[in-house]
Amino acid sequence: LSLISIQGIAQLCQGSLGDPIINISFGAGNNPGPPLSAAATGYQYVSSDCPNDGSYTVRNNTIACFGNSWHTITTDHTGGGAGYFMLVNASIQPSAFYVDTVKGLCGNSTYEFAAWIMNVILPSSCGGNTNQPNLTFTIENTTGTILQTYTSGNIPPETSPLWKQYGFFFTTPPAGSDIVLRIVNNA
Description:
- The chain is mostly beta strands.
- 2% of the residues lie in helices and 46% in strands.
- The protein contains one helix and eleven strands; from the N terminus they run E-E-E-E-H-E-E-E-E-E-E-E.
- The strands form two sheets. Strands 1, 2, 3, 4, 5, 7 and 10 form a seven-stranded mixed sheet that branches.
- Strand 1 and strand 2 (16-22) form a beta hairpin.
């Protein structure tokens, strides 16, 4: 059970991060937000506030899901406006729930991938014995060769909603390339 708001990819410039060169945004507006493209997720889109296992929705807020066992979320990680986030109710079976291709990256360059994640379940839910999100982020070239991978480990429930950034650096091949970003639910 997690919320995803992807910050984007930034190029490393002379020892400090520059401005993001790619910012994957889910947009903004009234609820519900639109479904993601078919290539972006293997999960079923629902327009309702509280997706069931193996489903997701795109929202700018969510209120009292599953008998108040989830946090009420009033905003995306930016804290303002009507920005959408992807609300995922993970499948019980480990699987990719977000896949996207980023095109035109420079060769032999170091980039940072970062995403804002929140475990939406309350610590008291299920008698305190809940499945915790555990995500693997993978950067691949378009032929499937893994360039870099990062695993979040278990993301514990918090007493209040807490967006936390997860990220890592990766380097593109010398010739430059398109890359595939894959986020897998391991829990």
